Amino acid sequence: MFCDRCGTQVQEGQRYCGSCGKPLGIAVVPPAPSATGRLARHLKLLAILWLAASALNLVGAAVLFLLGNVLFGHVVRIQEAWPVQGFLQGLFTALGFLVLIKSLLGFAAGWGLLQREPWARLLALVLGFISLINIPLGTALGVYTIWVLLSPQADEEYSQLSHAA
CA 139 to CA 130: how far, in whole Å? Predict the structure, then answer.
């Protein structure tokens, strides 16, 4: 048996090192290196963030539908002479559909990342690049998604995690 501070050989049952005086009965064990990689440590948080962002997008889609169909729908009936309002109703409804589709895809990506589905990494990356234009929260989520899922060896690590799940 050896002292873990100075390396001097000590006898079994000896309480202190004769060279450096370190107490030998108390072994300080360094923490074991993490068996999981960087991707595994961040994957659950990333999935939860995608689910939360998708819930916010769902609220945004509902607001766009309401603006398009309630506000501009009634205004068009009141003032038939202004044709821009009919255009705005169609525009807000179309934007509502696009945001709804993005929200549903974000829910799928979040759920897939939680379940470690093989297709979820690619879907989350595509949505991450798309969400970069939504300043500031979408940009932050997009950067974090790209940082986590495009790190070195992320493809191999995600493949191992998806096969293990």
Answer: 9
3-state class of 12 per DSSP?
A: coil
List Cβ neighbours of 88 (8 Å cut-off, separation of 6 or more).
68, 72
Q: What length does the chain have?
A: 165
In this predicted model, what pLDDT tens digit does every residue of 109-159 receive, in sequence order? Answer: 999 999 999 999 999 999 999 999 999 999 999 999 999 999 888 999 999
First to last CA, the chain: 42
- Count CB atoms within 10 A of the CB of residue 114: 17
Predicted model pTM: 0.71
b/e map 2-21, b = 16+ CB within 10 Å: ebeeeeeebeeeeeebeeee
Question: How far is CA 44 from each of CA 9, 36, 38, 114, rounded to the nearest angstrom?
Answer: 47, 13, 11, 6
> Helix 120-130 to helix 137-149 angle, to the nearest 10 degrees?
140
CB 5 within 8 A of CB 16: no
Cβ-Cβ contacts under 8 Å for 108 (sequence gap 6 or more)? 120, 123
